Amino acid sequence: MGNSGQGLFKPKSEQVVTIVSGLPRSGTSMMMKMLDAGGIPPLTDEIREADTDNPKGYYEYERVKKLDKGDTAWLEEAQGKSVKVISALLKHLPEGYQYKVIFMQRRMEEILASQKQMLVRRGEATDAVSDDKLADVLDRHLTGVETWMSDRPNVDALYVSYNEALEAPLEQAQRINQFLGNTLDVEEMVGVVDQTLYRQRR
Prior knowledge:
Layout (H helix, E strand, L loop, with lengths): L16 E6 L5 H11 L36 H4 L3 E3 L14 E7 L2 H14 L9 H20 L4 E7 H6 L1 H11 L6 H6 L11
């Protein structure tokens, strides 16, 4: 977890950047929708439209994909908002801002099944790497990301289970609300949780 009160770090603003992160297909779009309903506006350009894999929309901002190329100026606009950043790009977030990261977790077998189904719909190969090998790679990646976040004084992290958010949305919405300063509309957050999108149950 983060330890934002320690060290000499001084953020540019009192307003934080709320980051929703996790592996692809781990429930990040659902969390963005929950935050939006709760009162935190998303930073999104709506370039990537809703489709069969994400019928409610992706809530993405294209410039995020250039974090590893040094495109960070947009973070000024992200203060006070939520933005989706996949786990592989978190380490490229610059200092100078305070980050509240809601990190989505999901059963690995469901993530792999969901990713494979997305590839099938796109007509792409699904057998390049075995599930066991990919799961091992992703597990090691997640361990590294958790270590990175815990070592950063300007990063606070809350881990949220996608599975538990669907099974007990009120409890998880209350956790998120507390983490973000008790300013969200919890009932509205719960109201947008859609059980019909839970299609890769294990």
